[in-house]
Amino acid sequence: MNRAYRVPLAGTDLDYFDGASAVNALVPGSYQRLPYTSRILVENLLRRCPPEQLEQSLLQIIHGQQQQDFPWYPARVVCHDILGQTALVDLAGLRDAIAEQGGDPAQVKPVVPTQLIVDHSLAVEHGGFDPEAFERNREIEERRNADRFHFINWCKQAFDNVDVIPAGNGIMHQINLEKMSPVVQVQHGVAFPDSCVGTDSHTPHVDALGVLAIGVGGLEAENVMLGRASMMRLPEIVGVKLSGQRQSGITATDIVLALTEFLREQRVVSAYLEFFGDGTRSLSIGDRATISNMTPEYGATAGLFYIDQQTLDYLTLTGREPKQVELVERYAKANGLWAEQLSEARYPRLLEFDLSSVERNLAGPSNPHRRLPTKALAERGIAQDLSKVQAQEAAGQLPDAAIIIAAITSCTNTSNPRNLIAAGLLARKANQLGLNRKPWVKTSLAPGSKVVQSYLQEAGLLSELEQLGFGIVGFACTTCNGMSGALDPVIQQEIVERDLYTTAVLSGNRNFDGRIHPYAKQAFLASPPLVVAYALAGSMRFDIEQDVLGHDSAGKPVRLSDLWPSDAEIDDYVARFVKPNQFNAVYQPLFDKPLDVKVDYGERANPLYQWREQSTYIRRPPYWEGALAKPRSLSKMRPLALLGDNITTDHLSPSNAILADSAAGEYLAKMGLEEADFNSYATHRGDHLTAQRATFANPKLLNEMVRDEQGEVVQGSLARIEPEGRVSRMWEAIEHYMQQQQPLIIVAGGDYGQGSSRDWAAKGVRLAGVEVIVAEGFERIHRTNLIGMGVLPLQLPEGVSRHDLALDGSELFSVTGDLAPGAELQLLIERSSGQCVQISVHCRLDTAEEVEVYQAGGVLQRFAQDFLEGQQETSSSSPSSDRSVKEQEAEL
């Protein structure tokens, strides 16, 4: 600690680190000009930075310099059970490796408090029109995931500093917002800002409270868990000034879809955004959280709001102790984090957005930043041929563009009581007028916490939603994560036989092709009340603003405007029925007393997990075997795929249901699983033998190496094996190259790796033998995951696209040059004709730490090297140095 700036916090018995004094001592008067993010980073440096690095690091922040690394130590790690479990599988495998090399495996454990919430494993097999849907879906979840839950429970016992929230209690982001984040932490008599990294790209959800929280891959989270600093350079900090107020009838979902389009156009990729201005005052924390949650959809790293009275009111509403609420206010005002104290903050780039310009919106049909105003449905060609749809329905057929799934899901919207109340009020009006959902629409309500159930019940609105088929199917991340479950077999058969264009509508944050359901060709994002309305419409050919949803008992036509609740009615219901006691009733049993976790895993003293050899969910990771056991050659690499722009982690490693005719499905069948229990790709990521077969398994993949006779790219999970030129399924190509020990490369367009923070999108390609990714641009989280797996990310020069290289996939690639942060390296391309071309590429190892991780072979290999060296030094050190290590651990 740098104790010179540790001072008492007035009105408490605590101290804090005074950022203003430290900064102004170096450059007088500069603290008041710093953005919110910079002030958070200054405090972290004062508290945690080695003293010899402090002044230089502070000066970088003061002057907005980005040339050198400095350490950031997040206070917590938050995980869901997909990436969180996978990270802990890695640590369990690392224990094995350490033990085999003579180290003490019990010392491999999280040092930073780690919270794991089991929220990504429930599939909506039973829709919301089934009154027993919740119980039936939970029973299926427990049965399918028995191996996974066994391992997670073992982790709670085997690893210190790991807390587990069991399945059936909510989504990590909503629980983080409503309970886990104190906004201001206290340790060892010091108050400081809460901060966290989370193994999900939507971790910035809690940025709405003024908490610096960013999504990272599982590999980066492992690094933080193990007590290492997250090395960073000062990010680009962009101010987003919100002005005006939303129009009547406009939801926070409409606002965030408009913002997502706007911010994508403004190219804020990897930036830290700070929302401020008069417009923020009318936004509740629920509204702000809707905006912060979709940070990855507009490409940023963080989406922060300042601490203000709205923050304090929300903490009170959600049942935080009055003493904690008072501490947040005292600390924020003392250290310059209160909204009114940031009026002089200066931003290198400032954007402005008028909330009054927002209209009712959808997003789709493929990307969350493709905004679609509902009034423009006809002119965009979405709503058309309604008479044809009605004729098909009258003939007993599924109509064109049938909506087969309508889901109120995802923490993006269910953390916002206003959105859920609006959906309930719309449902009540629809019931009063005698409207019904279309019978082919699979409906569901999956709140992010049980508090939603409490206030909807007290308001008398849950029964109204249930009447339209929106009963609660689970408290988990479901449809938005591709866990939408099976369709009615009759409906599925008709879709296949007629090759129907079918759609889904959901109140989520992701609608990438192939993600929501294998039989939903495309998907649209919408606010919860719009989701209910579309369940009544039944087809995307319906003009939701103009067309008639049905007729009341008097034969009068009913349109959306007849159902939509007024803002005053929504606000009245929120004020009357959302109460602190509901939050206390839900969260006190989870956090204020020990959980009853029953584990049958053997002796507690055994620090090594007893791997189940026949498991298709949990398997000892192979990170010291195969492609990872030999040095990377960076020479004579063959392309596995040539890809376009906007390749998502869903393309690289899908999360949706596993089909029987897929490579993973065939493997699971050989392992004895019934097709009904194949589960999703996501749930099997603890078993590399299943997860490897998900690599590039997305049926919407367009590998430009695979073309038809007319030269058009063929869609599918396909590759071309070279030098034979033989087209095969992607997995067969990967197997072939693995057997040949052939190093591979991938060439791609811009924004490579956008989407979820999915470490298997990097693990899968590395285990396949991919050594290098050359792209026109990378999304931040995926780039760090690649480095964490020992894959070299190289970026084409500005103005040069993959098309300029004139590749056909028959080439061999080699990389030469000296590795250094941001170095210029040479990419040698040998064509089958014998011609050689050489171009300069930009090394996207951005920091010295990233170079060291890459050279070690990845995060785990780097940790193993340092750990064994450290144990050797400790064993020969004096008792005084041993005490120093313990003191450091206590401080962490």
Question: How would you explain this protein's 3D organization?
Answer:
The chain has four domains: 3-62, no CATH class; 73-232 and 859-892, Aconitase, domain 3; 372-586, Aconitase, domain 3 (2-Layer Sandwich), CATH 3.30.499.10; 626-653 and 695-857, Alpha-Beta Barrel (Aconitase, domain 4). By secondary structure, the protein is an alpha/beta fold. Strand 32 and strand 33 (824-830) form a beta hairpin. The relative contact order is 0.10. The chain contains 31 helices and 34 strands. A seven-stranded mixed β-sheet has the order 24-29-30-31-34-33-32. The chain has a five-stranded parallel β-sheet with strand order 6-5-4-9-10, covered by helices on one side. Strands 14-13-12-15 form a four-stranded parallel β-sheet. Helix 1 (19-26) packs across helix 2 (36-48), helix 4 packs across helix 30 (859-875) and helix 27 packs across helix 28. The radius of gyration is 27 Å and the shape is globular. The termini are close together. 35% of the residues lie in helices and 17% in strands.
- Looking at the structure, the CATH topology of the largest domain is Aconitase, domain 3
Provide the structure class. Answer: alpha/beta
The rounded Rg comes to 27 Å
- What is the count of β-strands? 34
For the record, the count of structural domains works out to 4
Distance between the termini: 11 Å
CATH architecture of the largest domain: 2-Layer Sandwich
